[in-house]
Amino acid sequence: xxSGPPPDPTGRRSLDDAAIARLLTGFLxxxxxxxxxxxxxxxxxxxxxxxxxxxxxxxxxxxxxxLVALPQSGRLTPPPLAVAGTVAGRAxxxxxxxxxxxxxxxxCRLWVPLLDGTERMGVLAMSFAEQLTGDLLTETxxxxxxxxxxxxxxxxxxxxxxxxARRQAPMSLAAELVWGLAPPMMFATDxxxxxxxxxxxxxxxxxxxxxxxNDRLLHLAMFDAMGHGLAAAGxxxxxxxxxxxxxxxxxxxxxxxxxxxxxxxxxxxDRRFVTAVVAELDLDSGxxxxxxxxxxxxxxxxxxxxxxxxxxxxVPPLGSGLPHRAPAIQEVALQPGDVLFxxxxxxxxxxxxxxxxxxxxxxxxxxxxxxxxGHPAPxxxxxxxxxxxxxxxxxxxxDASALLAEWRRGSEARLLPQTxxx
Length: 422
What we know:
Beta-Lactamase; Phosphatase 2c, domain 1; Bact_Sigma-Reg
């Protein structure tokens, strides 16, 4: 339980350096031996050190539609909060601390983004006496939320508590395999903001995405296996493993293609092929190099106004059984502000209510509108997911995945916590 003097009769405790120290050091001390299921309770109890009440940890669900409160023993768990149309959702989607009135009189409620680096994990809700509000409290809560987010990320490896919360629908066995291999769906560094998408979130069975930032070189890859379900997920996962092995062995793009193609052919002699796009982006120069193996080419949104279509010379899918030939390594120079979009054909082949294809043109128009609105990479993909896919405007006939990378667009700064920018 929290140490230090008890709160005064109004439930307030003065916010000073000692209280902040008790908050942070106490949380660190207690979470060393905590289980994942303990994190929400410890977060709430330690919040009392700075006068916080009604503390709730909300995590985003896999479909990026609702924020789900983590259970705390002995307390009633609040219902999920929709991202669309709620203050909690705006705090999450904008990575901004927002304040509302609390249910109790003379108290306010802070909604603080849970950010691990720049990855948006959810929000931390905390209520305070109005007299305590101010810059110091805001900064303290933001730092506390970062610590909680990092703890959630770390403890996630040791239990299923966070998975139970994030899953708002049954997950197929194939999706279980795909998500288990997926990297975090958000990353940012100097000159780069990156986001990924796997749909349908609970039944994806043939698409996988991957990326890695090694020094100043960004590696991107997307694989789409023939068919759907567990067999397709297994083939895509195998291609991903072959790609990572080749990348981590220091192979260039041509060598990587040869290694992946041979591995898929050897493992699947029945010709269960896998399409692929594999790319490398130099973050200093903007030079993009890639190859296509039966996969749709990426496109670039330039100046938030028009689409640039890079060269699309490709080779057959991995494991097709056709005579091997080295892929043509395509090359294009990105310009500052460019948005690079990699996707699988399940996205453009989705159908609307009239049975019409969603099409590449409609996809690029949507990305242009989102770029013009100033939304950063993760919010663009979340809005594609919720506005188009989950909004009932189109019906997926296949898995739909995407990787979106912004180069020197400045959007990485919009993903940082407020007080980091001050």
